[in-house]
């Protein structure tokens, strides 16, 4: 287990739902029609007078206990020791989709044409070359960043306990968000 893995920080208070991160990720990963390895969701809810609307840019959370890895019978997933990146090997993927059912965040995306799954790998080749992932680079409002979990978790307002998201207890996601107060469960 990585003691201080790489993690995303998404400042949802800055996200304007332009989907530039989504498009850049889709293009860089040559994702199939319908596949979105990063997705911008609009969350809304609450009770009057504490209503909320916010945007969350989400991808693979590179969880500390990845459910996709545990569910894959083909051994197509691995978690890198040094940085905690959860990597999917398409050569080992048998297209069973167990990982898509197991992931509480719907990060692995199935491509029926290829008969394989694809997911965010945190642009591992770019990370290894000292560059940011394409979603980070593309965001015009700099709402997404990547860093070590201890630093990311120390950002003011950083949380993973967000209304309408699965319990973080299941997989221990590393991604942290800054959200409007009414969106947080903390």
- Using the 3D structure, state the CATH architecture: 2-Layer Sandwich
Q: What would the CATH topology be?
A: Alpha-Beta Plaits
**Biggest sheet layout:** 3 strands, mixed
Outline, from the CA principal axes? globular
CATH class: Alpha Beta
Q: In percent, how much strand structure appears in the residues?
A: 15-25%
Q: Structural class, from helix and strand content? A: alpha+beta
Topology:
Elements: E1 6-11, H1 20-28, E2 39-47, E3 50-58, H2 67-71, E4 77-79, E5 86-88, H3 98-102, E6 109-111, E7 116-118, H4 124-128, H5 134-138, E8 144-148, H6 149-153, E9 176-178
Parallel strand pairs: 1-9
Antiparallel strand pairs: 1-8, 2-3, 4-5, 6-7
Q: What can you see in these coordinates?
A:
The protein is of the alpha+beta class and 186 residues long. It has one domain: Alpha-Beta Plaits (2-Layer Sandwich). Helix content is 18%, strand content 24%. It is built from 6 helices and 9 strands, in the order βαββαββαββααβαβ. The strands form 4 sheets. Strands 8-1-9 form a 3-stranded mixed beta sheet.
């Amino acid at each position: 287990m990585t003691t201080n893995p790489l993690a995303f920080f998404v400042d949802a208070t800055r996200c304007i739902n332009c989907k530039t991160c989504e498009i850049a990720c889709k293009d860089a990963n040559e994702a199939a029609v319908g596949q979105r390895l990063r997705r911008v969701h609009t969350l809304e809810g609450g009770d009057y007078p504490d209503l909320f609307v916010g945007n969350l840019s989400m991808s693979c959370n590179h969880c500390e206990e990845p459910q996709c890895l545990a569910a894959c019978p083909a051994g197509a997933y691995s978690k890198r020791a040094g940085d905690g990146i959860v990597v999917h090997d398409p050569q080992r993927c048998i297209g069973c989709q167990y990982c898509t059912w197991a992931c509480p965040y719907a990060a692995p995306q199935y491509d029926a044409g290829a008969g394989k799954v694809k997911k965010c790998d945190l642009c591992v080749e770019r990370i290894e070359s000292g560059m940011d992932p394409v979603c980070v680079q593309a965001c015009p409002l700099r709402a997404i960043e990547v860093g070590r979990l201890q630093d990311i978790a120390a950002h003011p307002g950083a949380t993973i306990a967000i209304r309408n998201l699965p319990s973080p207890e299941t997989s221990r996601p590393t991604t942290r968000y800054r959200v409007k107060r009414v969106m947080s469960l903390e």
